[in-house]
Amino acid sequence: MGRTVTLATCALNQWALDFDGNLERILRSIGIAKSKGARYRLGPELEICGYGCSDHYYESDTLLHSFQVLAKLLESPATQDIICDVGMPVLHRNVRYNCRVIFLNKKILLIRPKILLANAGNYRELRWFTPWNKARHVEEYFLPRIIQEVTGQETVPFGDAVLATKDTCLGAEICEELWAPNSPHIEMGLDGVEIFTNSSGSHHVLRKAHTRVDLVNSATAKNGGIYILANQKGCDGDRLYYDGCAMISVNGETVAQGSQFSLDDVEVLVATLDLEDVRSYRAEISSRNLAASKVNPYPRIKVNFALSCSDDVAVPTCMPIQWRHHSPEEEISLGPACWLWDYLRRSKQAGFLLPLSGGIDSSATACIVYSMCHQVCLAVKNGNADVLADARKIVHDETYVPEDPREFCKRIFTTCYMASENSSQDTCNRSKLLAEQIGSYHINLNIDAAVKAIVGIFSVVTGRTPCFSVYGGSSRENLALQNVQARIRMVLAYLFAQLTLWTRGMPGGLLVLGSANVDESLRGYLTKYDCSSADINPIGGISKTDLKNFIQYCIENFQLTALRSIMSAAPTAELEPLVDGQVAQTDEADMGMTYAELSIYGKLRKIAKAGPYSMFCKLINMWKEICTPREVASKVKHFFRMYSINRHKMTTLTPSYHAENYSPDDNRFDLRPFLYNTSWSWQFRCIDKQVNAL
Q1: Is residue 631 exposed (0-12), middle (13-18) or buried (19+ Cβ within 10 Å)?
Q2: Beta strand 253-257 with 247-250: parallel, antiparallel or unpaired?
Q3: Rounded to an integer, what distance in angstroms lies between the CA atom of residue 369 and that of residue 353?
Q4: Nearest CA to 635 among 587, 675, 600?
Q5: What residues act catalytically?
Q6: pLDDT of 256-273, one tens digit each?
Q7: In which pathway does it act (predicted)?
Q8: Residues 402-452 pLDDT 10s
Q9: 8, 258, 314, 691: which sits with the fewest CB atoms below 10 Å from its CB?
Q10: What are the C-alpha distances in Å from 607 to residues 103, 438, 604, 669?
């Protein structure tokens, strides 16, 4: 009697609408799975078209091309003698579903539509798909002719069913269904399903990985079973980075762990497991068995195929392992770096340009690019032919081999210090030293001539010349003069991004990197259309506190000693005149709040869904040792005034790596008005009433 099964799951770097590339990666993963003895292969959610197609799901072309790819998979010799489980959109009776298509030897066994759709945060699945609401119900699906010609089938089962092979029973979940309180695996497990599969499109958020791992392990801890999870990886065309972490768990313990961050487009995880471990685990759980005796059975699709061999007693099985989690600093070093690499190679640009100010934010961005160069060199050293081919295309040299991160950085990364009369020598020196240590091609320039020209035009037209407040000017004049400097830097950044390589006799252009952190964006402490306006921003979803910790990590792990002075310096925009040659302007003084306070406001506003009054009520307890209720009220009012006055800036926020659940990204994640009544009169009266009562 067969008892050991060999199963494969994978993490694929799929790209929305890249049907050629997606097909190639799927076939490659199936080939690897078969070569390692697997009899079942699971892939990520919607892997055929790519998860992030968004409104392209409305197009009939997306459905057509998905079926064309499915036909290629069915025809391929690589898919023979292995059950293949792939993801794609399917239109059934004029309703679009997010589906798993499970097939074996040119025959489709089952099309299983998603039952519980992800529709919170970054996810909008209900916009494009309908959940399958007919529990344990199966209908006939009429196949398109392109598939009929390959399979010889006119119809196949479509609905909520499980697969019964000769030796076990398998049931599918799709991403969100694992996270829901009424996950299908609960009832499936009670009905005798021994192997649960989950195809995911789950993105990276700092400190989130352990939650996913805990959910997978807990899925089988109470009910027994084998749980295998596949996930998308990489940047598939937007702000999210899908972070792999394919895994296999048995009876509540992890037995195989995939990488969270890597430049491998295809990663396959294979495990050999003993079905008798599941059966003996379940046998002694009497409460589970009592519930199982009353469960409403699932329709079973019989499959004339075995996942085990008849004589497998001596086959070794996988043992439990301890999951290795990355620290948040490692996550920042690796996640955004991998996202940048995907964006760079897929945009077919020749590198990046970063305005490097000598502050923590732009320095952290530079360190992420340097980390990316490290990852590229390491991948090439480990024999990754895809990364080597991409690197050669980027530098336009078919013989090039990236071996030294600093040398590779010199080729693809330009940093630019844009000085003005308000810049200090300290920030200039810090920028230059950091550029030397990471190896970037560094430019020093002065923007004063351009600023004077712009202000001169204004003076000629109006007959008035604005002054900084230290010279007697009004606050309006002071702010306008700061904004001119900031916006000139954006214009120059794009000019140098387009032409720097031209001046060096090299082909191509550069992507401009932004470096505004999540807290500054939330507060609106940035000039609209300044250097925060860029092509992409790898730190736009990361807090100042986490960035400081990341800088310390880089000092210790990359030996970037230039970062020590950057860490110790007070954050400053350097847009107001120096006093005795020293910086007088600091970020926290300008903002009227600390970065630590901003992080707390951000989490309460977004994650805790707190308006002004609720935030005040929470903070009078959180800060009771350091602030009076009246001081808390003043702080909360100031934050909401500044947040609402500046919310319009979020409509033009540079696309940023999504890393925090309190991100103010206006595009899809944080949907709010951008024209507020900034007096918050009713809300603030409620706060005042409570302050007086206290």
Answers
A1: middle
A2: antiparallel
A3: 10
A4: 600
A5: 45, 114, 175, 357
A6: 999 999 999 999 999 999
A7: Cofactor biosynthesis; NAD(+) biosynthesis; NAD(+) from deamido-NAD(+) (L-Gln route): step 1/1
A8: 999 999 999 999 999 999 999 989 999 999 999 999 999 999 999 999 999
A9: 314
A10: 41, 36, 6, 12
